[in-house]
Amino acid sequence: MKPRLILAIILLLAIVAVSSWFLYKDDIKQAISPQPLETPDYTLDNFVFNSFTPQGQLDYRIQGVYLEHLPDSEWFHINELNFSAQRANELSWEASAKRAKLTETTHILDLSGDIRVVYYREEKSEPVHMRTEAMTIYAKREYAESKQPTFIDFTNGNFKSHGGFKIDGKARTLKMFGGVKGEMEHD
Fold first, then answer.
1. H runs (alpha helix) in the chain
2. With CB atoms 3.0 to 4.6 Å apart as the test, which of 54, 68, 107, 145 could cross-link to 40 if both were Cys?
3. Are the C-beta atoms of 116 and 129 separated by less than 8 Å?
4. pLDDT tens digit string along 42-88?
5. 3-state class of 173 per DSSP?
6. Which residues, including other chains, have CB under 8 Å from residue 106's CB and lie 6 or more apart?
7. Residues 178, 109: one domain?
8. What are phi and psi of 7, to 5 degrees?
């Protein structure tokens, strides 16, 4: 090849590369620069949110130490959450967590950090105490689930479920998933 042709090709490639860089440098800057954090439009300290059935009975209660609402994403961020679900004027189950996110419209709660769940079975039986690290509550459906390992504590033993659990408040059922290991003493 002739040296002039090689030089012309190199010069043409350089012009294309520099032009591309000038055309896309703003897109590249925007892609690598961090987006500004969303600013809350309001916050609440030590709040309680109650939801009632059409008959006027308490359906569920959400309490927390701190709540902030993020208007762009329509999320509520909650610190030190306590959730309790009622069924026919009886406490069905309750949960607490260090952190939670709540959707504004669907009332789905994503809990994280040292979650404690108490599931109340029949009237005269002992409640089931569980611990996990992540859980989702579908408040309007009376349903909750976790796919994280869950520790279950009874007065006469404890278990670990590697596949998580599901609580159906309407059917009053608790299902554990995955390999369940543990010990229990029978009286």
1. 3-32
2. 68
3. yes
4. 899 999 999 888 888 888 888 999 999 888 877 889 999 999 888 76
5. strand
6. 138, 140
7. yes
8. -65, -40
